[in-house]
Each structure stands twice: as structure tokens, then as C-alpha cells.
Amino acid sequence: MLAAHLARAVLQANRHGTYRTDIVFNEHVFLHDFVVMRDVLRPELVASFLLAKHLAGSAESFAGRSVIDMGSGSGIQGVVMALKGATRVILTDDSPHAIENSKANVEVLELGDKVIVHKGDLFEGVESTADLIVFNHPFFPGQPRETDFIERSILDDGELIHRFLDDARNIAPRVIMPFLHVAGETNDPGIQGPRHGYKIHKQHRLRSTLELNPGDVSIYELASPGG
Predict the structure, then answer these.
(1) pTM passes above 0.85
(2) Taking the mean position of all CA atoms in its chain, how far away is CA 97?
(3) Which pick of 3, 69, 80, 195 has the fewest CB atoms within 10 Å?
(4) Per-residue pLDDT tens for 181-213?
(5) What is the DSSP letter of 44?
(6) What is the mean pLDDT of the chain?
(7) Concatenated DSSP letters for 74-87?
(8) What pLDDT is stored for residue 211 in this prediction?
(9) Distance (Å, rounded) from C-alpha 101 to C-alpha 97?
(10) How far apart are CA 116 and CA 142, in angstroms?
(11) Which residues contact 189 (CB under 8 A, 6 or more apart)?
């Protein structure tokens, strides 16, 4: 019941218009005038913020390397990695709203020399491998409507995470994924990853005080099969 209640609250809070905001991760890393467009998840209110803050404080995991921000949404994860030393960043999403939003933030932050924004379903059209994939996937179990991109950012019946894990092994040796544990097991990388041969390399567990994603959150670092 709690997971369903939270999912409804996240859906309601993300029916918003386009706006700009300042997002502060620490005294050294912040995003000024960050753009969040209509039909894109509000990153500062959900686990996207926690994942981006984690990346801002652990640049050694991607600095000097190539990365993919899967399901980029507003682009928050990808631009943080670009700012903190990743040499090549691909932001990819199948939502036209997310693509427009990611491009806007790449332009605002003047990162066009190292960031590529790409539209596709998972790795569709991604023609190169990478050192790392970061994926802030849907947490809550459910079947989203195909045309509702906010629902698709929040809900999945488990099909997406299994497709991703199958495909990702051919693209990068490492994957970073967050998870809000109150959402249950369906989309938990810590449970589903090992079923696809992934090893839990690290698990950073923290207590979220975010209004829309409260409770225990893990940020998993997975080593792909053969990686």
C-alpha cells in the first residue's frame, strides 16, 4: 500500500510546467539555472538527486572515461559526470520531451564538446561501447500508459529492467543504478542483477529524506558478466 501511495504522489507532483532551478550537491558542485521541462521527472525531488549527488562525490568512478546516462530525462546524471571529468557522455532516452530537456541543459552548461544526446529505446542506435552506464530506472511496479512519459519514468512491470540488464552486458563492464526499497523487489537491481549474472560490486545504502522518495535508498554498482 505504501508503494502505491508513493507512486501516486510522485505522479501527481510531476504534472508540472517548464521551470528553472538551482540544484546544489555540495559546496563545489551545483547546477545553476537547470531546466526541467513539462513531461520530464523533477530531478531535485526524487532519487535522481541522490544519484547525481553520489556521482558528484565519486568522480574517480568515471573521470577520464566514457559513460552512458540511460533514460537521461532532464540530463542531470550525465551533465554531472561531464562536469566532473568524464571524457565522453551519451545521454539517451526514448522520450522526445527528455531529449529536448537534455539538449537544453547541455547547452546551458556549455557541454556540447563532450556530450551527445541520442533518442532511442534503451541501446537502440547506440553504436559504441562505454566504460560505465548509469540508469535511474522506474522503481514502482505497474504498467504505464505508452503515451504518458511521466508514468513511464516511474512505473514498470519488470520488463524494462530485464531488457536493460540483458543488453547492458554487451555495452559496458559496469553499471550504476539507484533504488528506493519501499517499491518492492520487481525493479530492485540488487535482486534482479544477480539473476542476469551481475555481481554487486558495491552497495551504498542511505536514508532519503526526500518528500517524494522517502526511506531506504541503495545505489548499486554492478559488475557485468565477464566485466
Answers:
(1) yes
(2) 15
(3) 195
(4) 999 999 999 999 999 999 999 999 999 999 899
(5) G
(6) 95
(7) TSHHHHHHHHTT-S
(8) 86
(9) 6
(10) 31
(11) 137, 161, 165, 175, 177, 179, 198, 220, 222
